[in-house]
Design goal:
single chain; three-stranded mixed β-sheet; about 40% helix; binds dinuclear copper ion
Length: about 350
Amino acid sequence: LKQERKKTEMRVRSTLIFLTSATAASASSTDLHNIANIFKPVTTPGKLDYDSAMLSIWVCTAIFVIVASVLVYALVRYRRKGNDDLQEPPQVYGSNQIEAAWTVIPLLIVFVLIMVVARVVASVQNATPPPNALKATIVGHQWWWEIQYPDLGIVTANEVNVPEAGADHQPTFLQLQSSDVIHSFWVPQMGGKLDLIPNRNNLMWLDPKETGTFLGNCAEYCGTQHANMLIRLIVRSKAEFAQWAAEQKKPAVSDASVDGERHVFESLACVNCHAVRGTPANGKFGPDLTHLMSRQTLASGMIPNTRENLRAWLKDPQEIKPGSLMPDMQLSDPQLDALVAYLVTLK
Ligand code: CUA
C-alpha cells in the first residue's frame, strides 16, 4: 500500500512539474507558435497537404449539405398530415437517368480527389535534395530525439534547428531513423508526420517561410514516455542559423574554474551514456551534452532548462519522467552540486 501511495504521489508530482513548467515555457518564449496548429502550415509540403485536405473537406461538406437538405425537405414536405387516407403512396421503380447520375457523379468526385492527392503525395515524397539543401539526420530513441548534421559535424538533441528557406529557397532534408522501436516525427506546421523505423531511412523535407519555435511530438506509440517525447523545431534567419551552427561546431567550453567539478562528472557513470566533445566523455546512448545549455528544455521538451530543473533531473529522472532510461544514480548532494556547476558551463 505504501509503495502504491508513493507511486501515486510521484505521478501527481510529475504532472505538477509538467504543468508549471509548461506554463513557464510558454510564457518565456514570446515567439512560440500556436501549439500543434495544423491549420497554419509554413512550408511547401505543409501547404500542399493542407490544401488537398481542405479540398476534401469542402467537397464532403457540400455533399453533406445537399444530402441533408433533400432529406429535411422530404421529411417536412411528406410528413404525416391530419387528412392521411392511410393508403400506400404510388411506388416508383427505376429511373435510368437518376441512377446513372448518382453513380457517375460520385465516381467523378472520387477520381478528382484521388488525382489531386496522388499529385501532392508524389511532389512531396519524390523531391530530390537541391545542391543548397541542409541535411540532418534524426534518430528516434526511447524517449528523445538525436539530431545530427553530418555535413556540419554537429550532434544535438530534442531541438531541431533549421534555417528559414529565404530567397534561395534553401530546404532542409531530414533522414529519419530509429535506434529502437518505431517513432513518428510530427511538427504540425511543417507538414505531415513520418515514421522513424529501425533499419530504414525515411526522407522528409521542409522549407519554412517563417522564423520561430514550432512545437511537435512523437506521433507513434513507442512506450511509457511516448507522450513526453516532445520536439521543438526552431527556424532561424540565415544569419542566426549560421551563428548557431558555428557555436555548435566548437568543442565544449573548458572552464578552468570548474576543473574539480568536471573530474566529478568524468568519474561518474554519466560518461557511459553521454558525450561532451573534447573530453573523455563519449557515451552514445543518451543526448550529447557538449552544448547542453544552448538548449531551451530538458528531458525532451518536458521542463525548461534551468539550473534548478537540471538539479532536480539529475537527482532523480524517474520522478520527472517515470520509466526514462536514465536511472536514479543515487547521487549525494555534493556530487549533484558539482555536476550542476560543471554542466551549466556547457554553453
Ligand atoms: Cu517515440 Cu512515441
